[in-house]
Amino acid sequence: MWYEVYYWILVNYKWAFLFICAYLALNALGNLLPKPRLKPAQVFARFALIIPAHNEELVLGDLLKNLRALDYPKDLVDLWVVCDHCTDRTRQIAEQHGAVALLRTGGPPGKGNVLDWGLNEIFRRKGTEYYDACAFFDADNRVMHNFLRVMNNHLQVGHQAMQAYLDIKNPYTNWITRTIFIEQHSSNFLWHGGKLRLHGGNYLIGTGMCIKANILVELGWKVESVVEDLEMSLKMALRGIRIYWVEETKVYDEVPIKLRIMWYQRQRWAVGLWKCLLRYTWPCLWRGLITANGRLWDMMLYMLNPIFVFLSLLYLILNGINAIFGIVHFPPDPLMTYAGSIFGILYAFSGVLFSRIPILPNLPFILIYYSLIPILSTAEYVVSLFRLQKKAWFHTPHSLTLDEKIKL
């Protein structure tokens, strides 16, 4: 029995690999389609800007000043800071900058729990119909001045959930942030931009999110995984709510400057993705079949990424063992090797090229990105598979200011 399974994997896995390559290429080629454009709206929505914060006194003030200066009618914007078990000056800084500080002193940690509690408190104080939409930011963020005008344009044409283009606040701190900068800009092109134009399954990515208030009144922010943004995306997708990737405005996020912090952060993401895979893959598949909703199938394929990485690693190991010991014999088939190598080079290069990253000054970091990120992604998915029962929340520390070269 084991012999037949072994042989089947070696002979047939190439078809799954080629399918994934075609899927990724299709998403990337979607960027060649015209970018959606909206006319400036003449009606203005009322926004609640919500910031979950745990001991963020070093960065919160800069964000609040930034949000106060957004190009939007000031009387239609309220700032809310959800101070979660804070022991520093986060509350005082929030109040100094005109925000309402909500003090959360009980309950389990985790951003999802904080947001659910904060939304309930805001709607209790203001009523469920006071705001038209809520926008969410992390305390370390900085935001382009046109953010609310752009989101309002989307709201006024009937869009219900939007995710702003995510950029990096500290791209030039060290080689780690430079590499993450390459990765972030490449994925924005290869993944999110193409999905938008192909009407695919875009998803929330934790900050720079804007969602209609009535959806949040209905759903709250009730999640079970540590990737609350992806889980909320799936809940909305199952209800037929499309999430729009918004390229006309940006949110800048602080990324880790140490490998240890980067590893812990990505481990949390990987554990959360495994859990969403186990809970939502079949509902997305079944609902997608019933409603013929391609976005649900698209999101299902994204959730299957850990399985693909795991099976690719397994294939590599089995192929190596077979090459050494000759356990089974099957005809030479160079298709997967050639196709995989050519696709990997072209796919990665297109991400750098079409996102307009200067190649020569960034060449060392591009090479690190090509070599480090695939290895790191494989390791995080494999290790996280054995950490699914871990529920500890790791808080990423923030302390950096916006790079002086970035203009909002």
Largest sheet: 8 strands, mixed
- Fraction of residues in helix: 40-55%
Are there runs of 5+ residues with pLDDT below 50, and where?
A: none
* Number of spatially distinct domains: 1
CATH superfamily assignment?
A: Spore Coat Polysaccharide Biosynthesis Protein SpsA, Chain A
The name CATH uses for the topology is: Spore Coat Polysaccharide Biosynthesis Protein SpsA, Chain A
Q: By helix and strand content, what is the structural category?
A: alpha/beta
What does this entry look like structurally?
With 408 residues, the chain is of the alpha/beta class. It has one domain (1-32, 44-386): Spore Coat Polysaccharide Biosynthesis Protein SpsA, Chain A. 54% of the residues lie in helices and 12% in strands. The chain contains 13 helices and eight strands. The chain has an eight-stranded mixed beta sheet with strand order 3-2-1-4-7-6-8-5, with helices on both faces. Strand 1, helix 2 and strand 2 (77-84) form a beta-alpha-beta unit.
Core attributes:
408 residues, alpha/beta, Spore Coat Polysaccharide Biosynthesis Protein SpsA, Chain A, eight-stranded mixed beta sheet, 13 helices, 8 strands
